[in-house]
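Write out the bound-state structure for iron/sulfur cluster.
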Amino acid sequence: MATEVVSAYDLDALSADFENRHALEIIQWAVDEFGDDLALSSSFGADSAVMLHLATRVKPDIKVITLDTGFLFPETVRWRDELARQLGLNLCIYRPALSAEEFVAEHGKMWRSSPDSCCAFNKREPFNRAKKELGIKCWLTGIRREQSITRRTAAIAQRDNLGLMKLCPIARWTAKDVHYYLLENGLPYHPLREQGFLSIGCCPEEGYCTSKVKPGEDPRSGRWAGFDKTECGLHVHDQGSGI
Ligand code: SF4
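---
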């Protein structure tokens, strides 16, 4: 796998150019540039159907990297498999080195005491492994500036922690844009969204990692409620992250 993919690009210029382009044009650029070395990262969260649909419109066989930490809601797993059938997704499911049971036996309920370490083991390691094993040079993600304070300044073209390119084609989209795209294309939200879960990740036990969001709060405020933590680490990079 090539290292420091982004050193061949002017990320600021790319980001500036992409600000005026539709998400489909940005994805098309990435497909032309990286071909099969391009992937989409998806959490199969509240509105993940948008990026899954956009990306597969441009490249139907795009690799879709998703993590199964062993702590997901059962609804997420069912919804992932249903969407995969509906959209014919090329799913690449990666798991941590230990099963959920083995992890708890060895480390206890780490999400209570050290969620950063828990995410490092259960999310960041398998995600980095996925990118390396699949030979990824560029990956797409559906993060949007509106989702939280930490994402408000996200650049569309970024460098990730491995020196690969990370693109956020719908960074500028609002919740309304998302809603109308889903409506126009007959796509569903995550089934738990209607219960007030606006951002959906792990649920190792009630009250931890994913909670319901009150009206008017940031969609991601229900993640790691009670902790000074807003990201699992997949979107926090050493430099050039724009976050
Ligand atoms: S979201 Fe929670 S359970 Fe999942 S890896 Fe992070 S801390 Fe652990």
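---
The pocket of iron/sulfur cluster is lined by residues 69, 71, 111, 115, 118-119, 122-123, 201-202, 204, 209, 232 (CB under 6 Å).
The chain is about 35% helix and 10% strand.
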